Task: structure prediction
Amino acid sequence: MDDNDNTEEGKQLNEGELKSAILEFIKNDKVGPVIENSLKNSVKLKGEMITVELTNPVEVDGIEKIKADLLTFIRKKFQNKAIQLQHQVNIEKAAERPYTPKEKFEAMLKENPILGKLRDTFGLDTDY
Result:
């Protein structure tokens, strides 16, 4: 019997499958938009430890509310009771997160410079 992708406890985690499981949880469990964003963008995996990196203390309450349900969902999905979930607040990362429409557009512009050309060509107003 070949169990390369199973641990003694159950199925081994990998980032791709974890992200899919988190998206499924978000879709089924209706978490708030702030927590949804954190779960989509700030989850790190090391072994069987899942860390959600938060950017402000306000997000901690939201994560605490769903932590048990999320952990139960992931453990059941991967049939692995050894999976752990923790969160940490990274204030430095908060400065990187865009909040205003202008900051969001400038962040998108760094990722995809063609947006600047579209804005200029069509005379779009990004400061609404």
In short: Confidence is low (pLDDT under 50) at residues 1-8. The chain has two domains: 15-93, 98-128. The first helix runs from residue 15 to 29.
